[in-house]
Design a protein that fits this description.
Strand order of the largest sheet: 1-2-3-4
Number of helices: 7
Order of helices and strands: HHEHEHHEHEH
Length: 197
């Protein structure tokens, strides 16, 4: 996500490793690198992996990067993808921040926050999205976000057409990164193509 590195995924990676998945994290330089660089770096990482089945998990901006990658991805090893609090339809909070004096903090990834593309899930990979409804986060201090939201991203912004499944959990945007329920639901989608209910 914005201003975060691969360290932010450490807890989820550990939990998914324990569930039987072999995880690899990618650092996104969200402020300095362009969307094209993000997608290229993800493609390069996937190409180097030796697994026969590859699932993708992205939080916030990372989820939007996954969606862009999937538009043209042809790797037959790709399995499923889970987006965590990803503003797949654009971020109202980012649009409001962009109009303010400190809007430059969005950096080179600004375009992805303001008007992500595509407008629907594209490609052969099944995609699930987890949204949060605990409105606690920095977003509420500089923007008005539609209800319900996770403190940074509105639930409605995560409902991109073409999703295989969508679920809303009582977590905030940042707490998704340390939520056992988020980890368990991600593992369930990777295994079954649907969230556990």
């Amino acid at each position: 996500g914005l201003w975060m590195g691969s360290w932010a995924m450490h807890w989820l990676s550990t939990r998914l490793d324990a569930a039987g998945f072999d995880t690899h994290s990618l650092d996104l330089k969200s402020v300095s690198d362009s969307p094209e660089v993000h997608v290229s770096r993800l493609a390069q990482l996937i190409e180097k992996l030796e697994s026969s089945r590859i699932h993708l998990l992205g939080h916030s901006l990372g989820g939007v990067v996954i969606l862009r990658y999937l538009r043209t991805a042809r790797d037959k090893r790709l399995g499923r993808a889970v987006l965590l609090g990803a503003p797949a339809l654009g971020s109202m909070a980012a649009r409001q921040l962009n109009r303010q004096l400190w809007g430059g903090v969005l950096g080179a990834s600004r375009e992805m926050w303001l008007a992500p593309f595509p407008e629907k899930v594209e490609g052969h990979v099944e995609v699930g999205a987890i949204a949060g409804e605990h409105a606690f986060g920095l977003g509420i201090f500089f923007a008005t976000i539609a209800e319900p939201n996770d403190g940074a991203v509105a639930v409605a912004e995560t409902r991109i057409p073409g999703l295989r499944d969508h679920i809303v959990l009582p977590v905030s945007h940042t707490a998704m990164l340390i939520s056992g329920e988020v980890a368990d639901q991600s593992a369930a989608f990777f295994r079954n193509g649907s969230f556990a209910r």
